[in-house]
Write a structure and sequence with these properties.
The complex is a heterotrimer of chains A (about 130), B (about 100) and C (about 240).
Chain A lengths: L5 H26 L3 H23 L11 H8 L7 H32 L13
Chain B lengths: L1 H23 L3 H21 L3 H25 L11 H15 L1
Chain C lengths: L1 H22 L16 H13 L4 H9 L1 H21 L19 H23 L8 H18 L7 H25 L22 H24 L5
Classes of the chains: A mainly alpha (about 130), B mainly alpha (about 100), C mainly alpha (about 240).
């Protein structure tokens, strides 16, 4: 038990959580019939991809990429910082994800007004 | 490092459990709250993975705003996932059934 | 049958995600040294404190190095707000008032909301004004301010966002963003070039155009998100 690789465990936990979230969300999108459930699945996929990006940018023992007067001298002495590029990308992606979710939900409301149901197996007509 | 690992593993397990709950729950309001909890745990994980900017964004947008627009949508549509639409035909069939049962 | 097919698909997707991810060592230093940058992340880390005097590297990337991307992002948010308004549009009958909530909320919630509302606005403003020094920035601050408006909309029946004011704030913020970008084109060589003096690190007035753009983004995001929430909350119940 002593020689369990901690890094291996961390890797399994973080990447496993990210891939698990993507798969659970994909399952919800493909199987579920209710439109709100499908949108929930989409937002779960979103969450998984964000976690994957941040996990790939992480560096063991790294600090967050924010400088201070003391921080610069520490970096010059060899203290590591995590990769800032995936974080900037995820920052953008979260805000865009909110916009996508809001538009999708307003379409659901509009569809419900017309068909009185939000289940796709009960919507029989194709045009509206 | 060991504490960090334990925290990450516990958070990952809770994350997956809550995600499964959010997908399997038939009551959409509960599923929505579970989606909010996913965002909360994700925000803590981002903070532990040295991404405070992303954690702040996820906390403000994922927990508060996304949850509230889901709740507004549920208020304007239906709450149960397995609800059946009441049409004239189905109502007539219901009444037929009742009459036959009485006879 | 469908479930079996979906599970099969999930297995395939999971395996194809597992194979590349198993090659990646978690937490390995893939970025290289900051002194002699070989990756783009190391380059940003080495250049930000000396060239831009910005403490928060993520802000520098979002607003300066990838500023054009952020301009596209706020346009997407604007399009989302417009799209929601047009999807949910419904002509009002004569004398009909839209109400955000059908029942008045309790005294406790009303008093508490009134107490906490200015504090939330101040927190949001703090987050986006100090975006280049501490974690945070325009998007986070804007979202926090929208949350404060949401609290008031949910507690008070007659609290409405003034859409004229929202449109003006949003347009002015957008014009500021594009105007600063064109200023870079006039003074320097490229769109969104940092043409103002950068000052010293960790000062409030440092970083040249970065704080100006992030404050503009904060106002724009707050106005857009508040508009979206007001549109969604004003739907009449069935």
């Amino acid at each position: 038990m002593e020689n369990i690789d901690i890094n291996q465990l961390l890797s399994i936990a973080v990447f496993g959580a990210a891939v698990g979230l993507i798969l659970i969300g994909l399952y919800a999108v493909l199987i579920k019939k209710h439109l709100i459930k499908i949108v929930i699945g989409l937002s779960i996929i979103d969450a998984g991809i964000h976690l994957l990006f941040i996990a790939i940018g992480y560096i063991n023992g790294g600090t967050s990429p924010i400088f201070s007067e003391k921080g610069i001298s520490l970096v010059n002495e060899g203290v590591k910082m995590v990769d800032p590029v995936p974080q900037a990308l995820v920052l953008t992606a979260i805000v865009i994800g909110f916009g996508v979710t809001a538009v999708a939900l307003s379409l659901v409301i509009r569809l419900y007004r017309h068909h009185q149901t939000a289940r796709i197996d009960q919507i029989k007509t194709l045009k509206w | 490092m060991v504490l960090f690992t334990i925290a990450i593993i516990i958070l990952a397990v809770i994350l997956l459990a809550v995600a499964v709950y959010a997908v399997m729950q038939k009551d959409l309001l509960f599923a929505t709250i579970a989606t909010g909890i996913i965002s909360l745990i994700l925000s803590v994980m981002f903070f532990l993975l040295q991404a405070p900017d992303v954690a702040l964004t996820e906390a403000a947008i994922g927990i508060a705003l996304t949850t509230i627009i889901f709740v507004i949508t549920i208020r304007n549509t239906s709450r149960r996932e397995d609800e059946v639409r009441i049409t004239e035909e189905s109502q007539a069939a219901e009444i037929d059934k009742k009459i036959k049962a009485k006879i | 049958m469908k479930k079996v097919l979906v599970l099969l698909l999930l297995v395939v997707v999971g395996y194809s995600l597992y194979v590349p991810l198993s090659q990646i060592e978690f937490g390995a230093d893939r970025m290289g040294s900051i002194e002699n940058p070989t990756t783009v992340g190391a380059y940003y880390l080495s250049k930000t404190p000396s060239e831009l005097s910005v403490a928060n590297v993520i802000t520098a990337i979002v607003v300066n190095y990838r500023g054009f991307d952020t301009l596209g992002e706020v346009s997407v948010l604007f399009l989302a707000a417009t799209g929601i308004g047009s999807i949910l549009y419904r002509r009002r009958k004569e004398g009909e008032h839209s109400e955000t909530i059908s029942k008045p909320s309790s005294q406790l919630l009303q008093a508490g909301a009134k107490l906490i509302y200015p504090a939330i606005l101040v927190l949001g403003a703090y987050v986006f004004i100090h975006g280049h020094l501490t974690p945070g920035g325009g998007f986070q601050g804007g979202a926090i301010i929208a949350t404060g408006f949401l609290l008031m909309m949910m507690s008070y029946k007659d609290f409405h966002m003034n859409h004229t004011v929202l449109t003006w704030v949003e347009s002015l913020a957008g014009i500021t963003f594009v105007g600063v970008g064109i200023g870079g084109l006039i003074v320097g060589t490229t769109f969104l070039e940092n043409f103002m003096p950068v000052g010293t690190l960790n000062d409030l007035f440092s970083g040249g155009i970065i704080p100006i753009i992030y404050v503009a983004v904060g106002f724009k995001v707050a106005a857009e998100l508040a508009g979206v929430l007001d549109t969604l909350l004003s739907i009449k119940e069935n």
